[in-house]
């Protein structure tokens, strides 16, 4: 089965340019840390981690995730800690550390401690990692994520979840269902410019994989 995650040794992912205002957020993190404005510092850590991850600077993003998580635990900043954790779970998917997602997502998904948005940010990478590993429970995670994102109707989360479901369906050999999920993802991405590039890349990979499948059948 051709993968849609691009996990081939002869291909390289496109690298996003560094985000120009990362240094400003670093300064914000330092200033709020020094002034003991704990909630602001927690949000700054989450923002900085997100900017670095969006720029695909994953080692530096992980540094601030770990530093920020320790700070949030020390100062009982549960919301910022969840935001950091959900972002890091996605980073683990992107960097091929799929087996680590299960442990990271376990505690935040127990009970009702996480908001719907926080649950989505853990459920989606959890479903992706399970799909890539061939582990059970893929759609247990992704069905809940889809239900939550549909109810929130925030296009960024809807597109992200549907893109993950596209890949999971494809890896399960359900090409028709995968293409249907991809169309839903694209419709949501039309309302959210930041989600258009990953959905467009997924569409390109799906077309390439489908063409390969046709060629193999000739």
What does this structure look like?
- This protein has 10 helices and no strands.
- It is an all-alpha fold and 218 residues long.
- The chain folds into 2 domains: 17-95, no CATH class; 112-218, Serine Threonine Protein Phosphatase 5, Tetratricopeptide repeat (Alpha Horseshoe), CATH 1.25.40.
- Helix 3 packs antiparallel against helix 4 (78-94) and helix 8 (155-171) runs parallel beside helix 10.
- The protein is globular and about 65 Å long.
Q: Short summary of the structure?
A:
The chain is mostly helical and 218 residues long. It has helices at 22-34, 38-54, 58-74, 78-94, 101-106, 116-133, 138-152, 155-171, 175-189, 196-217.
Helical content class = over 70%
Q: Proportion of β residues?
A: under 5%
Low-pLDDT parts are 6-20
The CATH architecture of the largest domain? Alpha Horseshoe
Task: Break the fold down into its secondary structure elements and pairings.
Blueprint: H1 22-34, H2 38-54, H3 58-74, H4 78-94, H5 101-106, H6 116-133, H7 138-152, H8 155-171, H9 175-189, H10 196-217
Features of the shown structure:
Serine Threonine Protein Phosphatase 5, Tetratricopeptide repeat, 218 residues, mainly alpha, 72% helix, single chain
């Amino acid at each position: 089965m051709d993968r849609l995650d691009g996990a081939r040794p002869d291909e390289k992912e496109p690298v996003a340019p560094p985000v120009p205002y990362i240094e400003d957020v670093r300064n914000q993190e330092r200033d709020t840390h020094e002034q003991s404005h704990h909630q602001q510092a927690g949000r700054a850590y989450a923002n900085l981690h997100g900017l670095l991850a969006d720029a695909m600077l994953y080692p530096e993003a992980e540094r601030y995730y770990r530093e920020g998580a320790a700070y949030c635990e020390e100062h009982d900043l549960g919301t910022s800690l969840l935001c950091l954790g959900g972002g890091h779970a996605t980073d683990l998917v992107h960097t091929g550390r799929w087996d680590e997602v299960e442990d990271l997502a376990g505690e935040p998904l127990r009970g009702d401690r996480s908001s719907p948005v926080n649950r989505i940010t853990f459920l989606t990478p959890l479903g992706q990692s399970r799909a890539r590993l061939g582990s059970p429970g893929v759609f247990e995670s992704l069905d809940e994520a889809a239900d939550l994102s549909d109810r929130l109707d925030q296009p960024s989360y809807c597109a992200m979840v549907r893109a993950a479901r596209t890949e999971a369906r494809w890896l399960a050999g359900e090409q028709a269902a995968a293409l249907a999920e991809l169309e839903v993802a694209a419709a949501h991405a039309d309302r959210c410019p930041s989600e258009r590039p990953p959905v467009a890349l997924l569409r390109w990979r799906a077309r390439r994989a489908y063409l390969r499948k046709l060629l193999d059948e000739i």
